[in-house]
Fold this protein.
Amino acid sequence: MLVLGPGAPAWAKKTRIIQTLETRTGEIVFLKLPGNPSVGYKWRLNKDLSKGLDLVKVDEIGWFMAQKGRSMFFQEQSMLNVAVRALSAGQADLAFDYYRRMGGRTYTRTSIVRVVIKPPPATQ
């Protein structure tokens, strides 16, 4: 459950398109979403806010972990790798929540990855 109280940071309240990808039916594109899971920041696909999920298959591959920095406050960002297979032509807006639980509350920022899927090339 998402809790956005008066103390929620400003970044937790805005939805934005962070990337637009073009592909063709049958192809796979890969997303890299920067994060810092070592201190509790994670990504998850928000199926309720996403549009066009019937046009794609989304698989989380896993985190590519960055090396630890010298300071616990300034860590290198890790990358969550996600594979998106285009099943049908159209447009899918994939909503990903970047979230962290702190003090009994969950703070979330939702970002959209737009996937524009063209039909397969005509055979000759």
In short: Residues 1-6 have pLDDT under 50 and may be disordered.
